[in-house]
Each structure stands twice: as structure tokens, then as C-alpha cells.
């Protein structure tokens, strides 16, 4: 029954946010909500005995894992938002009456994501995923500028129309189960049990349709067109949440569905489909990164690339690949959120209106040494330097990929090299710019609430990347087993 | 029997020729009434034809043999087509092959002759009308072919006689295909007879003319023949639509009472359809020329959908 | 009963008219015609639900019909008309990528493609009940035609109506699956309401904050006092 605390706490916080008025109380509520979620999740992780006590929630290793990632990112973003939103309000970009909408939307988004992860019913999962789309679109458009509204509308349209295809897939799945058992089912657990004898044609169509929606949510090519704009135009706290938590919902859906497909006879075709789309995604993302001149768009394309890589791991389908795919999810979220936070600090510094309308970064180490160093660390982490966890997961998945075809690791390494070059080139280009004396912007003093989450996420990344927390390996292996992919490592 | 077929041919053609000017006037009367005018007398069409037959026929100095033979050729082609479409009586044996595709291309040949006529007089308006008419004809042809193909597919035969005969045994409400087909057939009538929204038959502005533009240089007997063939074409297409949707009352045997009943019923049905055409024309404005393919596209969509549904059901 | 005999025919006619209305959504140029076409489409779905209820006797279908009637035939068009009054635009003349004739051709190809794919992959069920097959083909075709409408139309409101017709397609598809739990319909309604609300806020926001853009530009000293861009 502990899991009931999730919606109860969420409801309480949402009500309070509707009632209270002061900015400080709203921010405090905004931070308390994800922190409480994090505490509940940690408690559930360490006490596996009480999982079966909650009949309406699907509590197993994989959902707890994704919830852990979500609550860490939300907590960090809420903490970061304390200083960031304050700065936005002070400079007039955000109006006071939008503040309540922002915090309400933020908490509601966390509540919707929680319900999506923990629900037993596929249709409820679909509804909650749609809710997250709508709420995050609202958060993206919070600044009420024409560009942000356009980006937000594009996001809603692409994701919602694709989600409709997912719904058709769910109906197909329901019908397939009904053909086999006489009474259809919409519960994850029951469908996995019945999956073995389902009609292969119908279940493959169901997967293809289902895949379309959740691939759009995760930013898989060719449904990725909303992602760069949405991430670039949104406030950095929201971008971090988008990249770190909401993209994972799409992957979570694809994960569970692939687990169902593993039991049926079409897993081979499903695997090929996933690998093809993953390769396409990574190619488009890495090659596009070479052309980007703006920091947040660059980071957004890197998100697309990493999501493609996770899907490659899922597509390969061996237990090792899935283990490292889950690991990649966690590490990518932490590092990407940290990067977006640093980019946000830089944006606050350099957002003086220019002729081109873009931030012109210069005198980087002089004005913002903290952000410069964390940006460098983040870029290094994204490329896959050994101290950071992405190195481990990349090596793991690529080694598993050699079993499918040796061309996959070859091409992927080439693409990673392109991405690395893009990141390094961007960083070098901004590092070297110096403003003429007296023309640079006023140094911006980032408050501690903006710096602390970045440091925290960096420390978490380095910790995951260097040591295995006791029980982590077993937990992830159990998650892989939960999906139905076997236990040998 | 051959005798019966000859009687059928004679009666059919006579009926069509006699009834067509009346139907044209019904449409004009409805349009006039909607516009708040009295409109022409219902028998005005006959008076007009009589007047035109008495008048002198003038030819332009550039006109060649086309201007002299096209009126007669066009009417003859349409009268042959009239033999193929049973109006109120379906005989047991066809006199000429009543293939629906042959019917379609007879109509197209008539149209070709008129288009050549428009060019023949070496007037700019005639040439303009001809080019517009031929481009519209080219675009509507796939629609027509698909509509007729759907008809053939539903009823299972190429002969118009057989199609009508099958239609008398089917009740349209149970066959969604036939109901659906009525829409593209109606649009076909509008297009082939050059009515609003495709072309305004009552315009006197040469720049807006499509059909009338080609007839600008005809006069006297030739004009009368063209008017008659235009009216006959409308009646034949109306007959196809009516005898498929509402086949009630068509005579299947040669007996005087049934024939007369069939004739009267067709008169009534035709009048109702003309009223509908008149109301439809009054409800819309003439479309811009380049928007007309949109209308055709919708008709095409309908007809392809009809074939799909037949296949899928 | 006569009703049970007529019901399959009426369902088939309504399904065909649903596809036709989808075709009109792609080519209509007037905003009020668009909304009316959407209303007509939703009404056809109500009729289909009623027909299926008579055929198969599930009460949930009746509830679905009533809910669709209230929300999609009355409620959502009323919302959209409200939005239309605030943005005074009567016509949607611009199309991107494809004009209506080409779009209609493409939708014919789509219907054909969906039919062929489903016929191949659903061989086991095709023989079982042809009404399900027809319903699924038309439902998925309507979804794809709605997607085409979203892509080729320029105005946000028209895109929203395209999206709404996609949801209609999903509903049409779901109606033919028996014993679908009722709350699916309820869920789609909530989803639609949220979407329409949000998009209306945003589209009105684009339109009404033109003045605010000017003040923003002035604030950033990008707009000189006389009104030109500096």
C-alpha cells in the first residue's frame, strides 16, 4: 500500500499549489514533491517484500528503476528551477501569473509520469503518456513567445497523432488476446502470460502501430522533428525534464512491449525493425550534430542519438544488451540534465539581445567558470570518456551488437566519432571567443540553487561510472529478467 | 424479335427528341423562379426550335466543311446514342450494341465535332471555348470511365439494357453502391451539359463561355440542331441516372398500357430531376476554371470508393 | 426484426459516408464547412454505434453512442466555433505540400494500401467476420486521411480538426472490436477536451499577443520608437 502514497502526495501538493499564492511557497512545494517521490521509490527498492501489497500498481524492478531515474531528474530540475525561474521572473521573461501554472504543471507532470510508470493497464499507460505530452507542451510554451508556442504546438501535434497509432496498436493487441482467450485483456501482466499463442500477423501489426507512438515520444527518426526545437526553445529546467524523464517514458513503453513480443513468434522481425530504426536515428542525429551552431540544439540532437542507442540495445535483445541499455538510460538522463542545467546558466548569462537573436558566447572562462567546467565535463561524458558511465554502457552494447552483425559496431563507432567531433568543435569554438574590452555582458551570478543540482548530477554520474553500487547489478539483472529476457549475464 | 427492336428504336428516339426541349425549359423555369422572375413558358423550347429552323443559315468566310456537316453529324451521333439507352421500355433484343463504353465515346465524338466547329470559324472566342471544353472533357473522362466501370461491376454486364434490367430487380436501398453512384452520376450530368458550377449556360459574356462559345458562329438550322442535340444529351444522361436509382415503372414487355405508363412515369421522374438540377444550379456560383478539377476529384473519389466497397463487401 | 436486417446495410452505408467526409475534410476551403463536416462525421459514428448495438446487443455501445453524440457532435464543434469567433478567419485557402486533388488521389492510394496490407496479414480474421474487416480498414484509412489533413493544412485550427478526425477513425476502429471496455471512449473524450482546450489557448495566444510581441521587441530595444525594426 506504500505505492498509494504516490498519488496521495501528488494530490495533496497539487491542491496546495492551487491554494497558496506566494512564490516561495510554490517553489518549496515544487521541490518537496519530487523529493518525497524519490524517498518513496528508494524505500520500495530496498524492501522488495512489500511489492505485492499494492494491487493496482505494477511494481517490479523495471518500473522502480525508471521511477528512480524520473524522481532524481525531477528533484534536480525542481531545485534548479528555484534559481532559474526566479531569474526569469526578475528579468521579465516570465509573468507572475504564469508562475502558478508553471509549478502546477510541473507537479502534475511528475504525477502523470508516476502513474504512467506504475499502472497495470496499457490503456491507462497510454492516457498518462498523452497527459505528459500535453503537460510538457504547456510547460514548453510557458514563456508565451511566438517561437515557443510554435515549438510546443509542433510537439503536441507530432506526439499526439503518433500516439493515436499506438492506440490502434493497443486495440489490435486486445483483439489478438481476445481471439485466443475469448475475453480480451488490457493488463501488462496478463498479456505477457498469454503472449505465447497469439496470432503472429496481428501481434506484429499491433507492435508496429504501438511502436510509432512511443518512438515519436522518444524522438526516434522519422518522428523526431519536434525534439530539437522543443528542447532549444523551452526553459532549461523544462528541457532537462523533457530529456531526462519524458523521453524515457517512450522507451519504457517500447521496453515492455518488446518484452511481450519476446514471448511470441515474431521477435526476430521486431528486433530487425528496432535495429533499423535505431541505426537511422543515430545516423541522422550524429550527422545533424555536425551542423549545429547553438548549444541547446546540439544537446537535443545528442538526446536523439542516445535514445537511438538505447533502442539499439533493446533491439539486439540479448540480456547483456538490455542490461546496458537500462544502465544507459540512467546515465544519459543524469548527464543530459546536468548539461541542460549548465546551458541554462550560460543562457542567463549571454541572453542579451543580439542582432541575430542568438546567444553569443564569449569570454567563457572569465564570466562563467563554473558553467564552463561543468559544460566541459558534460561534453566529455557525452562523448564517452571512461570516468563517466556512458563509456561502460556504450562498450557493453557495442560488444553485444557484434553478435548480430559486425557492421553495427563499426558504423556506430563512426557515428559516435562524428558526435564527439561536433561537441568538441562547438566547445572549442566558444572557448576561444573573446569580447573586446568593455563590450562583454555583465557577469551573471548564478545562485547556489542552480549550481548545486549540476554538481550533484555530476557526482552521481561519476559514482555510477566508476563503482557498482552494491545491489545495482543484481537489481538491473532482475529488471532484465522481469521483461522476460532471461537471467544469465 | 427484330420487329420489336425496330419499334423500340423508333419510339425511343422519338420520345427523346420530343421530350428534351421540355426538360431544358423546366430547368430554366426553376432557375428563373428562384431568381424571382417568371421564366419562359414551358413549351418555349419548341417555339425556339421552330423559329430557328425558319431562319437563314450564315457561315463565316473562313468556315470549312466542318461547319456544314458538324450539326447534322452531332445530332445523328446523339440519336444513335439514344437508341442505346432505353428510356421507358427495355426490349428483349438490342438493335445496336448497347455497350456503355461505346455510349460514352459516342458522346465524346459529338463533343469533338463541336470543338472543331468552334475552331473552324476562326474566331477567338470559339477557339477559347473549344480549348476549355476539351480540357474539361479530358479531366472528366477518368471519372466517367470509373463511374461506368462501377456500374458494370455492380450489375455484371456491359450492355446498358442489361444494366437497366438488373436495376429493376435490385432495390437501391439495399445496395449502397448504387446510392453512392448517384452522386458522381449527378456531377457527370452537370459537367456534360455544361451547367453551373462548371459553366454558365445563360451567360452572354463571351469570356466566360465554355459551351456557348463554340456555338457563337452558328445560326439558323445549324443552331437549332445543336440546341436539340444538347438537350438530347441531357435527357440521355438523366435517363441513365433515373433508370438506375428509380427503375419503377419501366416497361419490360411490349403492351400499349405498360408503355404509356412507363412514358408518363419517366416524364414525371425527369421533371423532378430537372427541378433538382435547377435548384442545384441556383445554389452555387460558377467556379473558377482552375478550381473545377477539385470538383472532378471529389466525383472521382466517390466513384473509386464505390468500386472499393463493392470489392471489399 | 426488420432492424437487425437493415442494420448491417446501414452500417456499411455509414462507413462509406465516413470515408467520404474524410475526403471532404481534405479539400474543403471554408472553415464553417470543415466544422460541419466534422460534426457530420461524428454523427455517422453515432449511427454506426447504434447499428452495432442493435446487431450485437452490447449496452456499452449505446453508452458510447450517447457520449459521442454529446461530446463530438455538440460539444467540441461548439468550442471550435467559439475559437473561430475570436480569430476572425473564414477561409483556409493555403495548403502545403499537396493541394486537394493530389491529396484525394493519395487518400485513394492509402485506402487501397491499407486494404491490401490488412487482407494479407489478417487472413485468419477476414473470413471470420467481414464487418470487422471493413471497419478496421476504414478506421485505419480514416486515421491516415486525418494525418494527411494535419500535414497539408496550414492553419492550426484546421490541423486540430484533422487530429479530431483521426480520433474519430480510432473510435470507428474500436467500435468494431466487441467488448472493448467503455472507459476507452471516456478516455478519448478527456484527451480530446484537453487537446482542444490547450490548442485553443495557444492559437488564441498567437493571435492575441501580437501587441505583446511589439512591447517585447521594444523592451529589447529592437523596435525603434517610430515602429520600425532597428
Provide a descriptive summary of the structure in words:
The complex is a heterotrimer of chains A (489), B (313) and C (230). Chain A is mainly α and 489 residues long. Chain A has 19 helices and no strands. Chain A is globular and about 75 Å long. Chain B has 313 residues and is mostly helical. Helix content of chain B is 71%, strand content 0%. Chain B has 11 helices and no strands. The longest helix of chain B has 33 residues. In chain C, helix 6 packs antiparallel against helix 7. Chain C has one domain. The termini of chain C are far apart. Classes of the chains: A mainly alpha (489), B mainly alpha (313), C mainly alpha (230). Chains in contact: A-C, B-C. At the A-C interface, helix 5, helix 6 and helix 8 of A face helix 5, helix 6, helix 7, helix 8 and helix 9 of C.
Which helices and strands, and how do they pair?
The complex is a heterotrimer of chains A (489), B (313) and C (230).
Chain A: H1 5-19, H2 23-46, H3 61-91, H4 96-118, H5 122-140, H6 146-181, H7 188-194, H8 200-218, H9 226-233, H10 236-263, H11 267-289, H12 295-316, H13 319-350, H14 364-367, H15 369-383, H16 389-401, H17 407-431, H18 448-466, H19 472-483
Helix pairs in contact in A: 1-2, 1-4, 2-3, 2-4, 3-4, 3-10, 3-13, 3-18, 3-19, 4-5, 5-6, 5-10, 6-8, 6-9, 8-10, 9-10, 9-12, 10-12, 10-13, 11-12, 11-17, 12-13, 12-16, 13-15, 13-16, 13-18, 13-19, 15-17, 15-18, 16-18
Chain B: H1 2-34, H2 44-54, H3 65-84, H4 100-120, H5 124-155, H6 160-169, H7 176-192, H8 211-214, H9 220-245, H10 256-283, H11 292-312
Helix pairs in contact in B: 1-3, 1-9, 1-10, 2-9, 3-4, 3-9, 4-5, 5-7, 5-11, 6-9, 7-9, 7-11, 9-10
Chain C: H1 2-27, H2 31-56, H3 59-86, H4 100-121, H5 123-126, H6 130-152, H7 156-175, H8 183-208, H9 210-219
Helix pairs in contact in C: 1-2, 1-6, 2-3, 2-7, 3-8, 4-6, 6-7, 7-8
Amino acid at each position: 500500500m506504500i505505492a498509494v502514497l504516490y498519488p496521495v502526495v501528488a494530490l495533496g501538493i497539487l491542491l496546495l499549489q492551487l491554494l497558496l499564492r506566494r512564490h516561495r511557497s510554490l517553489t518549496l512545494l515544487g521541490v518537496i514533491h519530487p523529493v518525497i517521490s524519490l524517498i518513496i521509490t528508494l524505500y520500495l527498492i530496498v524492501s522488495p517484500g512489500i511489492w505485492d501489497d499494492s494491487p493496482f500498481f505494477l511494481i517490479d524492478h523495471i518500473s522502480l528503476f525508471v521511477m528512480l531515474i524520473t524522481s532524481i531528474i525531477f528533484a534536480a530540475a525542481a531545485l534548479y528551477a528555484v534559481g532559474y525561474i526566479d531569474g526569469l521572473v526578475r528579468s521579465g521573461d516570465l509573468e507572475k501569473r504564469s508562475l502558478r501554472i508553471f509549478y502546477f504543471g510541473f507537479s502534475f507532470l511528475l504525477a502523470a509520469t508516476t502513474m504512467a510508470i506504475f499502472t497495470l493497464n496499457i490503456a491507462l499507460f497510454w492516457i498518462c503518456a498523452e497527459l505528459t505530452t500535453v503537460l510538457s507542451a504547456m510547460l514548453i510554451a510557458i514563456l508565451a513567445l511566438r517561437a515557443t508556442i510554435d515549438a510546443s504546438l509542433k510537439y503536441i501535434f507530432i506526439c499526439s497523432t503518433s500516439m493515436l497509432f499506438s492506440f490502434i496498436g493497443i486495440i489490435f493487441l486486445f483483439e489478438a488476446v481476445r481471439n485466443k482467450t475469448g475475453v480480451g485483456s488490457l493488463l501488462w501482466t496478463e498479456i505477457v502470460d498469454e503472449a505465447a499463442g497469439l496470432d503472429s500477423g496481428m501481434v506484429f501489426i499491433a507492435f508496429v502501430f504501438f511502436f510509432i507512438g512511443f518512438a515519436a515520444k522518444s524522438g526516434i527518426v522519422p518522428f523526431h522533428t519536434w525534439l530539437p526545437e522543443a528542447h532549444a526553445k523551452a526553459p532549461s529546467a523544462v528541457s532537462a525534464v523533457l530529456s531526462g524523464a519524458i523521453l524515457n517514458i517512450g522507451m519504457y513503453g517500447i521496453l515492455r512491449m518488446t518484452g511481450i513480443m519476446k514471448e511470441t513468434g515474431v521477435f526476430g522481425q521486431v528486433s530487425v525493425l528496432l535495429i533499423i530504426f535505431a541505426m537511422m536515428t543515430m545516423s541522422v542525429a550524429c550527422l545533424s550534430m555536425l551542423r549545429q551552431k547553438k548549444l541547446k540544439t546540439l544537446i537535443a540532437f545528442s538526446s536523439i542519438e542516445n535514445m537511438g542507442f538505447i533502442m539499439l540495445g533493446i533491439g539486439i535483445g540479448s540480456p547483456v544488451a538490455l542490461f546496458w541499455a537500462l544502465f544507459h538510460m540512467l546515465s544519459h538522463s543524469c548527464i543530459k540534465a546536468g548539461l541542460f542545467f549548465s546551458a541554462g546558466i550560460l543562457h542567463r548569462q549571454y541572453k542579451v539581445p543580439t542582432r541575430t537573436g542568438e546567444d553569443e558566447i564569449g569570454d567563457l572562462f572569465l564570466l562563467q567558470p563554473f558553467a564552463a567546467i561543468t559544460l566541459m565535463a558534460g561534453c566529455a561524458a557525452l562523448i564517452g570518456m571512461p570516468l563517466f558511465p556512458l563509456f561502460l554502457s556504450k562498450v557493453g552494447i557495442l560488444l553485444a551488437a557484434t553478435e548480430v552483425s559486425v557492421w553495427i559496431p563499426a558504423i556506430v563507432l563512426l557515428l559516435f566519432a562524428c558526435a564527439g567531433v561536433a561537441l568538441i568543435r562547438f566547445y572549442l569554438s566558444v572557448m576561444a571567443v573573446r569580447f573586446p574590452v568593455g563590450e562583454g555582458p555583465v557577469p551573471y551570478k548564478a545562485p547556489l540553487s542552480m549550481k548545486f543540482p549540476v554538481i550533484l548530477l555530476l557526482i552521481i554520474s561519476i559514482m555510477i561510472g566508476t563503482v557498482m553500487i552494491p545491489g545495482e547489478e543484481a537489481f538491473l539483472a532482475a529488471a532484465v529478467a522481469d521483461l522476460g529476457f532471461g537471467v544469465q549475464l | 424479335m427484330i420487329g420489336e427492336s425496330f419499334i423500340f428504336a423508333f419510339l425511343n428516339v422519338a420520345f427523346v427528341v420530343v421530350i428534351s426541349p421540355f426538360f431544358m425549359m423546366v430547368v430554366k423555369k426553376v432557375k428563373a423562379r428562384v431568381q424571382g422572375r417568371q421564366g419562359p413558358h414551358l413549351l418555349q423550347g419548341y417555339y425556339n426550335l421552330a423559329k430557328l429552323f425558319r431562319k437563314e443559315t450564315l457561315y463565316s468566310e473562313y468556315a470549312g466543311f466542318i461547319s456544314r456537316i458538324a450539326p447534322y453529324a452531332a445530332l445523328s451521333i446523339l440519336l444513335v446514342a439514344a437508341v442505346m439507352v432505353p428510356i421507358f421500355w427495355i426490349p428483349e433484343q438490342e438493335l445496336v450494341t448497347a455497350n456503355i463504353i461505346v455510349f460514352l465515346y459516342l458522346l465524346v465524338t459529338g463533343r469533338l465535332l463541336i470543338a472543331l466547329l468552334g475552331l473552324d470559324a476562326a474566331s477567338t472566342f470559339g477557339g477559347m471555348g473549344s480549348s476549355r471544353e476539351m480540357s474539361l472533357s479530358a479531366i472528366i473522362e477518368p471519372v466517367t470511365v470509373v463511374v461506368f466501370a462501377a456500374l458494370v461491376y455492380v450489375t455484371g454486364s456491359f450492355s446498358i439494357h442489361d444494366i437497366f434490367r438488373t436495376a429493376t430487380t435490385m432495390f437501391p436501398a439495399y445496395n449502397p453502391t448504387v446510392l453512392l453512384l448517384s452522386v458522381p452520376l449527378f456531377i457527370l450530368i452537370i459537367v456534360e451539359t455544361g451547367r453551373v458550377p462548371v459553366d454558365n449556360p445563360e451567360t452572354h459574356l463571351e469570356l466566360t463561355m465554355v459551351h456557348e462559345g463554340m456555338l457563337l458562329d452558328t445560326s439558323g438550322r445549324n443552331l437549332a440542331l445543336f440546341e436539340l442535340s444538347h438537350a438530347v444529351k441531357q435527357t440521355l444522361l438523366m435517363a441513365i441516372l433515373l433508370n438506375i436509382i428509380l427503375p419503377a415503372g419501366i416497361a419490360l414487355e411490349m403492351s400499349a398500357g405498360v408503355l404509356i405508363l412507363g412514358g408518363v412515369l419517366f416524364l414525371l421522374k425527369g421533371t423532378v430531376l430537372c427541378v433538382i438540377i435547377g435548384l442545384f444550379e441556383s445554389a452555387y456560383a460558377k467556379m473558377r476554371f482552375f478550381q473545377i478539377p477539385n470538383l472532378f476529384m471529389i466525383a472521382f473519389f466517390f466513384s473509386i470508393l464505390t468500386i472499393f466497397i463493392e470489392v471489399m463487401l | 426484426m426488420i432492424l437487425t436486417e437493415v442494420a448491417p446495410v446501414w452500417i456499411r452505408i455509414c462507413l462509406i459516408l465516413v470515408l467520404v467526409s474524410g475526403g471532404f475534410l481534405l479539400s474543403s476551403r471554408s472553415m464553417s464547412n470543415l466544422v460541419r463536416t466534422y460534426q457530420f462525421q461524428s454523427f455517422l459514428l453515432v449511427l454506426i454505434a447504434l447499428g452495432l448495438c442493435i446487431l450485437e446487443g452490447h449496452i456499452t455501445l449505446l453508452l458510447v453512442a450517447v457520449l459521442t453524440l454529446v461530446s463530438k457532435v455538440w460539444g467540441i464543434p461548439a468550442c471550435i466555433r467559439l475559437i473561430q469567433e475570436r480569430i476572425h478567419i473564414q477561409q483556409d485557402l493555403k495548403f502545403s505540400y499537396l493541394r486537394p486533388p493530389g491529396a484525394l488521389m493519395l487518400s485513394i492510394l492509402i485506402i487501397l494500401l491499407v486494404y491490401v496490407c490488412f487482407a494479407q496479414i489478417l487472413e485468419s480474421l477476414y473470413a471470420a467476420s467481414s464487418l470487422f474487416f471493413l471497419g478496421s480498414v476504414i478506421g485505419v484509412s480514416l486515421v491516415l486521411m486525418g494525418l494527411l489533413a494535419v500535414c497539408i493544412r496550414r492553419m492550426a485550427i484546421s490541423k486540430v480538426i484533422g487530429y479530431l478526425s483521426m480520433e474519430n477513425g480510432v473510435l470507428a476502429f474500436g467500435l468494431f472490436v466487441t467488448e472493448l471496455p467503455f472507459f476507452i471512449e471516456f478516455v478519448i473524450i478527456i484527451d480530446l477536451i484537453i487537446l482542444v482546450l490547450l490548442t485553443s489557448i495557444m492559437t488564441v495566444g498567437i493571435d492575441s499577443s501580437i501587441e505583446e510581441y511589439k512591447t517585447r521587441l521594444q523592451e529589447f530595444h529592437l523596435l525603434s520608437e517610430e515602429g520600425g525594426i532597428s
